[in-house]
Amino acid sequence: MESETNVLGEELIACSMDPTTGFMRDGYCYPLQRDPGRHEICAVMTEEFLQYSKAQGNDLVTPRPELEFPGLEPGDRWCLCVPRWIEAHEADTAPPVVLEATSEDVLEDVSLETLREYAHGDGE
């Protein structure tokens, strides 16, 4: 992975290795030119968001082994697409965000103030 910075201006930390997330399945949420979905927000899944996402046609619950996708459960951390998180935010179903593992590139579309409102506590 290239050196990357998080929304706090610090070194980006891994979002999740279990399940292994990120566009490159390396655990990190960072921008890649070949990732049109922009999997740059490290979010902690909630039942509400998973149901919302499924209703929008993006089933994150059902395992898809052929895509190396285990299926997600509440509490799992996952690199979400920036547009999907914004859409969920507008629908009041956005999941909590792990700021230390969210790419600074997200700040082009979502303010740090908004992200801080959704900041996931360090209790896990």
Structure description:
The structure is a single chain. This protein has 3 helices and 2 strands; from the N terminus they run βαβαα. By secondary structure, the protein is α+β, with helices and mostly antiparallel strands. It has a two-stranded antiparallel ribbon. Helix content is 19%, strand content 9%. The mean pLDDT is 93. It has helices spanning 47-55, 82-90, 112-117; strands spanning 39-44, 77-81. The two termini are 25 Å apart. InterPro entries: DUF2237. It comes from Haloarcula salinisoli. This is DUF2237 domain-containing protein.
Give the structure's gist in a few sentences.
This protein is of the alpha+beta class.
List keywords for this structure.
124 residues; alpha+beta; two-stranded antiparallel ribbon; 3 helices; 19% helix; DUF2237; DUF2237 domain-containing protein
Question: What's the layout of helices and strands?
Answer:
Elements: E1 39-44, H1 47-55, E2 77-81, H2 82-90, H3 112-117
Antiparallel strand pairs: 1-2
Average pLDDT, to the nearest integer? Answer: 93
Spatial order of strands in the largest sheet: 1-2
Strand content: 5-15%
* Biggest beta sheet attributes: 2 strands, antiparallel
- What order do the SSEs take from the amino end to the carboxyl end, as H and E? EHEHH
Say how many strands there are: 2
Kindly report how far apart the N and C termini lie: 25 Å
Q: Radius of gyration in whole Å, from Cα?
A: 13 Å
Helices, by number, come to: 3
Q: Choose one word for the global shape.
A: globular
Please mark out the parts with pLDDT under 50 across 5 or more consecutive residues, or reply none: none
What's the helical proportion of residues?
10-25%
> Structural class from helices and strands?
alpha+beta
